[in-house]
Amino acid sequence: MPTALALRHVAFEDLGLLAPWLTARGWQIQTLDVGIDPLDPATIDAADLLIVLGGPIGAEDDARYPFLADERALIRRRLEQRRPLLGICLGAQLMASALGARVRPMPHPEIGLFMLNVHDAAAGTPLYGMDGCNVLHWHGDAFDPPTGADILASSLGCRTQAFMVGRHALALQFHLEADPARFMAWLIGHAGELSRAGLDPRALHAEMQAHAKTLARDLDHVMSAFVAGWEHPS
Fold it and tell me: Residues with catalytic annotation?
């Protein structure tokens, strides 16, 4: 039975739609809460897939969150081992930082469902076929392109939305995993950020419900291609 290990930074930004997707395909799932649970390198090395989830902290804010240095080192170790790795939002930023790229604040946060613009470099990657899809964005920071990694997608608000390292490591700035059925937890947890941005949680909730079927379809498209890429490389 393959194993997936999720590193979670805040309880409500969990695996979401990824959990039933993995379970239905016979995966065993373990979740560690970063900053609370010990991040044992042996435990992380043993996982067939490492998933680094999102969270409302800066990827390089080591001074206030010292555990980030250890987490980044584990991600760097995983990349050097060329083992399967999926980074989402903060997880993608940590991957970029581990590769030496800068992560910096954006002029304005990108929050909501917006269209993804997939680049020519995405041909043959899990992002192929996702051009024009509406996906959930929720971030105030963005990463620079890591050296040697093509940026696979952009949005109107952020030019760096995804990159890959080989076939085994995928970084997504956007959230394919967010479960529309449990999205109210995000809206409650990020109430302060929504208020500062002048966004109505009722409108965001309604938009997520309207896109529920396509969001699940897009997750399946990307994850099926991603897993196939390192399970059965051509």
Answer: 89, 175, 177
